[in-house]
Structures are given as C-alpha cells and as structure tokens.
Write a structure and sequence with these properties.
This protein has about 220 residues and is an alpha+beta fold. The protein folds into 2 domains: about 35 residues; about 180 residues, Glutaredoxin (3-Layer(aba) Sandwich). It has a 9-stranded mixed sheet. It is globular. The chain starts with 5 loop residues before the first helix and ends with a helix. The relative contact order is 0.16.
Length: about 220
C-alpha cells in the first residue's frame, strides 16, 4: 500500500538521502579508525592471546585494570630527547640508561595532568630506587619556574623537576596529547604507553612496573 502522494515522497527524499549519507559516513569513519587505530602497537589482551596461541608471547606483561595501556609488540628505541633538570643542567633520556623509567609528559595548562601528578609522586615514593624512576617531564614553553610552581601547588615531594621549554620532546616522542606516559626499559627502549591520565599508585600500576623490574633484579 502506497502511503502518501508522489509529491510527499519527493519531499521526503532529501531527508532520506541525508540520513543515508550520515550512515555511510559513520561506517567509513569506523573503517578508517579501525585501520589507523592499530599500527605497530597491541593491546594487553591481544598480546596475552598471541602469547598463549604461539607459546612465544610474554604473558607476564598483562596489565589487568589498566586497559588503556598499550604495549609494543617488542620494545622499540625512543628518540633521545633533550631537556633540563631543576637546576638547569642539560639532560637526555640516555642519562637514565640502566634504570626502568616511567616517563610522564605533562604541561602546566593541562587539568588532567594536575589531577594525575600526586599519584605519580606516590608511585615514585613507593618504588623509586637506583633501578626505577618516575620522570615527570614538563613539555611547556613556560619553563622551569612555572613547572616548579605547578609541582609545589600539587604538593609533590618525591618527583624531581624536569622541563623541556622547547616542547620538542612531545613531537619527537609522538605524544598525541597531555598527559602521555611511556614505560621505558633499562636499555632505553619503549615497552608501551598510556595516553591520558591514570592512577599510577594503584596496585595495577605497581604490578605493571614491577613486572618490568623483576627480570632486571633476578
């Protein structure tokens, strides 16, 4: 049965076309996102499944409770970015070789960074040693003084001050936003990263760090 006149059908056709175009756009976006969203990285669950299937994966690297943490299939070299410490002394990532490093890229204008920083400070207080350091690097043109004020305002005590006023380290390390946190092994290679904030003093986060530290201490 035909509901409506031909004129009414013609009036409805533009809306129908728009709706179909919107659906097609969404499908296209999903296809592109699915393609671009999985470059050389792999999620915790897929890494564990690959390991179980082949017998070659390192299933110890699972991070239950931290689904946003994305592992490299194998540890990869990082750009040796330059920055300064609180006294203005030049530093690079090579200066931390021999340590497992949790490198946190942050900025003074970043509200999630402000919320996250105390948990990074507590993680450093709990696990910091000659084998592990949380390196909170301010990627911010406002420089060392503004970074120092930020850390004081967030009541940070255990973290050392590091800053990159050039902000080049952000692009060199392929950070897509602030904060971004990269777990680096004692050879200076990226194990994986977490874009966005996290509770870094949680038991899940501590187990993640300790899983990397354990082989180095055996």
């Amino acid at each position: 049965m035909n509901n409506g006149t031909p004129a009414e059908a013609r009036r409805k056709s533009p809306a129908t076309v728009i709706a179909l175009a919107a659906i097609a756009a969404l499908v296209g976006f999903a296809a592109v996102y699915g393609t671009l969203g999985r470059p050389d990285n792999t999620s915790v669950s897929s890494l564990e499944n690959d390991g179980k299937a082949t017998g070659q994966g390192d299933t110890r690297r699972g991070a239950p409770g931290m689904p946003a943490f994305v592992f490299k299939k194998t540890p990869e070299p990082l750009a040796d970015v330059s920055f300064v410490d609180g006294s203005g002394t030049p530093k690079t990532l090579k200066d931390f070789r021999g340590k497992t490093v949790l490198l946190n890229l942050w900025a003074t204008w970043c509200a999630p960074c402000r919320e996250e920083m105390p948990s990074l400070d507590r993680l450093q207080a709990a696990l910091g040693s000659d084998k592990f350091e949380v390196v909170a690097l301010a990627v911010d043109r406002t420089g060392v003084d503004a970074a120092r004020k930020f850390l004081a305002d967030t009541k940070v005590n255990a973290l050392k001050l590091y800053a990159d006023p050039t902000t080049r380290s952000g692009s060199a390390l392929k950070a897509v936003g602030m904060p971004t946190t990269i777990l680096i092994d004692a050879e200076g290679r990226e194990i994986g990263r977490l874009p966005g904030p996290a509770e870094w003093d949680s038991e899940h986060a501590k187990r993640l760090v300790q899983s990397v530290l354990q082989p180095a201490t055996n």
